[in-house]
Each structure stands twice: as C-alpha cells, then as structure tokens.
Amino acid sequence: MANSNSAETNDVFQELDVDRLEVNVIESLCFSCGKNGTTRLLLTRIPYYKELVISSFDCPHCNYKNNQLDPAIEIKPQGVRMSLNIENKEDLDRYVITTDYTSIQVLDLDFEIPPMSQRSQVTTVEGIIAKTVTNLSEQKKVIDITHPEIASKMEVVINGLIGIKNLTKPIPMMVFEDATGNIFVSNPVAPQADPRMKTEMFTRDSAQDKMIGLSAEQDTTDQQSIIKPLGTFNDSSVNNMNDEIVQFSDPCPNCQSICETNMKVTDIPYFKQVVIMATTCEECGYRTNEVKPGGGVEKQGLQITVKVSAPEDLNRDILKSETCCLRIPQLDFEAGALSLSGRFTTIEGLITSLHEQLKDTATAFYSGDSQSGGVLAKTEIFLEKLNNIKTCKMPVDIILIDPAGNSYVQSLTPPDLDPKLTIMRFDRTDEQNEELGLNDMKVDGYE
C-alpha cells in the first residue's frame, strides 16, 4: 500500500454495506510492473444466489488489468448440478455465475472444463462457449505439429462448440456442476418453471470435500463442536427443551469468528418436532435462520395440496423443508428446493417471501437490459397475481412435494379430514434417494 499515514490506512477499507452498494477504491501493488495501481471492490448480493465480492484492478503504468469474482458466503451442504438443453438464442443469452470449483460438460462432444481450471466469472452461456473456442484454438496452434492426433480431436470439439453457438446442432446439453453449491444459471421465462433446465442437488464425495477445503479431519472437528453441547442432554432433559432456548458457540461460516447459535425445539401439533436455529455473528453481521424437521428422512415422500381461497387459508401454518419444492399450477409456477430455503411460516408469509425474491431477482438481473423487457413484463404480471392470491381474489392450489417427507401444512379441522387439504405419500425414485444421500448410506453391520 502506498499510504503511510496510519489514520489514512485505517480508512482504506471502508465498511462494505450490501444495501448501499458502495465501491471501495484501494491503491495497491501491481504484480506486473511493481508500481502502484488501483483496485476497486464491490460487495453485492444477487437474489436467488448469494453475496459476492467483485474486484477490478487497473495499473496506469503498464496497463495490466485483472477482474475477479469471489464468493462471500459459506459452502452449501450439497453440491448443485444444472443440466441445460440449448434450443434457441434465448438459452445462449442466459446469465451464468460460476465459482473456481465449477465444471462444465458438453455431453454430445464428450468435452469437459474441469473444476479449478478457471476463475469465478459472471458471463453468459454464449460467452462460455466463445471463450472456450478461443482457448482451444490457441492451444491447437501449439500442438498441430507435435501432436496431430490430439489436434484433430480438438478440431472436432471446436467445430462442435461453434455449431452450438450458431444453433446448428440438434439440442445439445450443457451440464454445470459445482461442489460448493454456489452456481447460478438464469431462467429466461421467470417466474415460470424453466422448461429446458433441470436442477438437482448431490452429496459430495471425499475428493470433492478435499478440493473445496472440507477435509475429513475438518468435518469431524465441525461435527464435534456441535455434538458436544447437544450431547449433554439426557432423556429427561429432552422433554424440557421445548421450554427453553439452547445456545452454543461455533465458528461463523462467513468470517470464522466464534459466534452464538440459538436453538429451540418446537412441537407442531399433528406433525412432529422441529428444530429452529438462528445464528448471528457480531463481527461481520452474518445472519441465518434455519428450520430442521426432527426425526430424519421419512420412509416415503410427501405431497401436500392445499386450496387457498379464503383469509383463513392464508393463515395456515406451513413448514417447507429445505428438500421441498413448491408448485402453483394456476400460475404455471414451480420453485425448486434450492429456490426457497427451509422455513416455518404461514401461507401468506410464504407468498410474501416469494413475491420479494422474485421482485429482487427481476431488479438485479433484468433492469436496464433491453433484451429482457419481456421477462420484466411477465414478472410484473406474475407479482400482481401473487398479490391477488394474498387478497383472496384468485383461488389457487399450493402444492408441496417433499421427497424427504418433512413438510407440513396445518389442518383447520383436526382431527377430522380437512376438505381443502390433500396429503399423499409416494415411494421415492432412485434419483431422489441419490439426492438425499440415501443410496450410499450404510445402516447395517455396525454391531
């Protein structure tokens, strides 16, 4: 740093406020020429995604430039895989946010960009293809003479990628996979369900945990830090947990400072116990609220359909677990398990949260984009329909589909059948068991 005055140095890093979106300008060393350049930092939150630190360095002496994108939140419990069928120009224009750990596959070409081979970036599907074609073309020039057989294979991939970019190949599929769970691909028909992209969660293996810095030793330590305080409860004290808030310390997922987590066990009538956890870090301001159903994964999945047409329906308690997706067929809308986190609220509260997230998403991604006027218009119409649901002007069915069987909607006529509430159980598919991590779970032979 060029600043020598200590008072000035203390002010170099201004407090980053995600609501004001202030750009912080820092004088910093250029690694190319050794003189001082300028780094600009911006902390921003992208709805439906996460918080990001965007940095841009520029040296006026040697004209060296460097742009970088870094995540600012914790690694998700599971990885994410997004499979996209590219059918038209709209798919090529999708926004894509990747991390250092993102892999990109083109299945038809048997081609993969492995994780740790490129930096985090904000781009489009077309931008990824164009950059890959450029990089492969440059590499091919080098090995044309020394390794002609490899160069010929690269030529096939390059021509295939160009065909995808020009929309001359028959509906190719690109698969975006990220072990940290922090990848984003925009939906051009938002807020409706994406007809050409499938999103699924997966359990990381030991190699992926090691790649992203979650070694087996660290996992064991993290589990012990949580299990130790909870393990002090015996059978008699468990009965009293509903009457008290349990507090324990653990490292902050954001800054690693020790912070307090408050936990309370609550009984939901005619359902089961749930664990409500809230963490607040006084050092960095990180906050999180989670609702975890007790009892683990149920033997069968659960589909709950509730008809919403009156104020009393909006006041029903609802528990949406983190493995549950939400559908509103009258709006042709579906929100996957990744879109809305686990929460215990009312139907009106759930619709309000959905309204706020969709509005923030439209503002963040499509404001000022001339090509996205249609998305903005459709979003405004959809938001108005959500308001009509909240004022009972538009009757709808709200459907919760939870493969883990840990979601709940309050009945208004217990213990009798509720005419507006339909509950169905179903056997999970192998794919759903895989997403829940059940296929590799060993439950025999421990004696």
Automatic annotation (TrEMBL):
InterPro entries: Znf_ZPR1, ZPR1, ZPR1_A/B_dom, ZPR1_jr_dom, ZPR1_Znf1/2. Pfam families: jr-ZPR1 (PF22794), Zn_ribbon_ZPR1 (PF03367). Residues 28-187, 250-411 form the Zinc finger ZPR1-type domain. Gene3D superfamilies: ZPR1, A/B domain (2.60.120.1040), ZPR1, zinc finger domain (2.20.25.420). It comes from the Eukaryota. Belongs to the ZPR1 family. The keyword Zinc applies. One of its GO terms (cellular component) is nucleus. It comes from Macrosiphum euphorbiae (potato aphid). One of its GO terms (molecular function) is zinc ion binding. Keywords: Metal-binding, Zinc, Zinc-finger. The lineage of its organism: Eukaryota, Metazoa, Ecdysozoa, Arthropoda, Hexapoda. This is Zinc finger ZPR1-type domain-containing protein.
